[in-house]
Design goal:
With 246 residues, the protein is an all-alpha fold. It has a single domain, classed as Up-down Bundle (Four Helix Bundle (Hemerythrin (Met), subunit A)). It is built from seven helices and no strands. The longest helix has 47 residues.
Length: 246
């Protein structure tokens, strides 16, 4: 009896959605359990750091979320390059790699937005909404480097939104928009190096070098692999038949 391909696709989508829901519920449960264990010990200190006269938590949360967002952007870039290089067909498979690529990109975008908005609570920076939303509007702290990060975040939002309009804009336009991910990644690196408080720390330097170097390596590999795949095959040499002596 033939199987309807659409039913298999719907079943796969349902399984993926169910697995995502279970993972989300487990994360909430573990987070709540951890909060019950940890809050009694350092809850007062955290509360003081958030609402005290000189709150520090907002600045630390922004610094930490910056590296988390950059790491997720790196994962998304790596998956995208592996998909185009056809390496992901071996493992975990193109559909799974593309789904994770899309999910990680959206998750990183959300944390990147959190990275900027959380500074609204910092009294030292004293940012206003216009300074957070408008590129190069940072008057109190390194406006050029912060502005490059803001542009990168808006570009990231456009690239992530293209996942949902792929059928309407067509594959060529979608690929063209996705090429902007390389510029977005460069803007994120430059933003971190220029405005990051931890940019001069040895561990941060290693992170930047690893992220940037690995993306450069995979990009060069992609260019070489595509050039080899598109090169015309060498013409076959004519087979010479031995002549029989007369």
């Amino acid at each position: 009896m033939p199987v309807n391909p659409s039913s298999e696709t719907n079943a796969d989508e349902f399984s993926y959605s169910l697995a995502s829901l279970i993972a989300f519920l487990l994360a909430i449960t573990l987070g709540a359990f951890s909060a019950v264990l940890l809050l009694p010990s350092w809850g007062f200190t955290l509360l003081k750091s958030l609402v005290g006269p000189d709150p520090k938590a907002y600045w630390y949360l922004s610094r930490g979320s910056a590296f988390v967002a950059l790491g997720l952007l790196w994962v998304s870039m790596v998956l995208g390059l592996l998909i185009t290089n056809k390496v992901a067909r071996t493992w975990p498979g193109s559909p799974a790699a593309f789904a994770v690529h899309e999910y990680v990109s959206l998750l990183g975008l959300g944390i990147g937005i959190f990275h900027g908005l959380i500074l609204m609570g910092d009294h030292y920076m004293n940012y206003q909404w216009a300074q957070i939303l408008m590129p190069f509007g940072s008057e109190n702290y390194r406006p050029i480097w912060v502005g490059l990060g803001q542009i990168g975040l808006y570009a990231w939002a456009i690239i992530s939104a293209s996942f949902y309009v792929r059928q309407k804009i067509g594959p060529k336009t979608w690929r063209f928009i996705h090429f902007a991910a390389f510029a977005n990644f460069m803007l994120a690196l430059i933003h971190g190096l220029g405005s990051g408080t931890d940019a001069s720390a040895p561990w941060a330097q290693w992170v930047y070098w690893f992220f940037g170097g690995s993306i450069l390596f995979l990009t060069i590999y992609r260019i070489i692999a595509n050039a080899i795949a598109q090169s015309p095959p060498a013409p076959a040499r004519p087979v010479s038949t031995p002549q029989t002596p007369k």
